[in-house]
Specification:
Helix content: 55-70%
Strand order of the largest sheet: 1-2
Number of domains: 1
Shape: globular
Distance between the termini: 38 Å
Order of helices and strands: HHHHHHHEEHH
Largest sheet: 2 strands, antiparallel
Number of helices: 9
Structural class: mainly alpha
Number of strands: 2
Strand content: under 5%
Length: about 230
C-alpha cells in the first residue's frame, strides 16, 4: 500500500465513523453545530496523530501483556495537553464541547488505530494512517453538522440563513435527527462502495478493530455458535 492509499483509505474506504462505525457517541453529540464539529475533529486528529506516532515508536518496548493500559496512559497524556491548549486559546470551544473533549481518551477510533495499526507499523506509516483517519473523522463531522445546523437551526457556522429561519426542522438538532442523518450518510457510503465493487464490511466481531484487545474470545464464541 502506497502512502497515498494509506492516507485516503480513512476518508471513504475505511472511514472510521461511516464504515468502521467507531466514535458514534462524539459524532452524534458534537455535530449539532459546524464550528463545534471542526473543533472536535481537529482535537481528535491531533491526539490520534501523537498517540499513533508514540505507540509505533514504543511498540518494541511496551510489553505485550500491558500494552492496552500503556496505550490508554499515552492517549490520556495527549488528551490532557490538547484540553489545556483548548482551554487556554479557545475557551468558547472548550465550553461547547464540554465533557466530550476529555472523553477523547476513550474514543474507540484512537484506541482502535493504536491496536490495529500503530502497534504493527513504522512511525511514518502510523502518522499517515492517523492523518487519514483524522481527516475522515473530521469530514464526517463537518458534513453531519452542516446538514443538521442548516436544516435544524437555519444557520451555518452560526450565520443565519434568512429563508430557512422560517422553516427550521428542530428535530434535526436533537438525537433522533442525528441518528437520521447518520443513517443516511452510512447508506450513501455503502452505495458508493457497492458501485466501486467493494464488498460490504461485516459488522460482526471479526471485523472489530479491537478484536485483538479482547483476545478474540467473542470471535471464537461466534464461530462455535455458527458451527452449531
Amino acid at each position: 500500500m502506497t502512502k497515498l492509499d494509506n492516507f485516503t483509505k480513512g476518508i471513504i474506504r475505511e472511514n472510521p465513523v461511516l464504515v468502521l462505525v467507531l466514535g458514534t457517541c462524539p459524532t452524534l453529540a458534537t455535530s449539532t453545530q459546524t464550528s463545534n464539529a471542526i473543533g472536535m475533529g481537529a482535537a481528535a486528529t491531533i491526539v490520534l496523530l501523537c498517540s499513533n506516532a508514540a505507540i509505533s515508536a514504543l511498540r518494541k518496548v511496551i510489553p505485550d501483556k500491558v500494552r492496552i493500559p500503556c496505550y490508554i496512559v499515552l492517549i490520556a497524556a495527549f488528551v490532557t495537553i490538547v484540553q489545556m491548549l483548548v482551554k487556554a486559546f479557545a475557551p468558547s470551544l472548550n465550553e461547547a464541547l464540554g465533557i466530550y473533549l476529555p472523553l477523547i481518551v476513550v474514543n474507540c477510533i484512537i484506541l482502535g488505530r493504536a491496536e490495529m495499526y500503530a502497534n504493527k507499523n513504522t512511525v511514518g506509516d502510523s502518522v499517515v494512517d492517523a492523518l487519514g483517519m483524522g481527516v475522515g473523522f473530521t469530514l464526517t463531522l463537518f458534513v453531519m453538522a452542516s446538514i443538521r445546523e442548516i436544516f435544524g437551526s437555519g444557520a451555518w457556522f452560526g450565520m443565519a440563513i434568512p429563508f430557512l429561519q422560517n422553516f427550521k426542522i428542530s428535530i434535526m438538532t436533537l438525537a433522533p435527527g442525528g441518528f437520521f442523518v447518520f443513517g443516511c450518510l452510512i447508506a450513501v457510503v455503502n452505495r458508493i462502495m457497492m458501485k466501486k465493487g467493494k464488498p460490504r464490511r461485516s459488522l460482526g466481531c471479526k471485523s472489530c478493530p479491537c478484536a485483538e484487545a479482547c483476545g478474540k474470545a467473542s470471535c471464537e464464541t461466534e464461530g462455535k455458535g455458527a458451527e452449531a
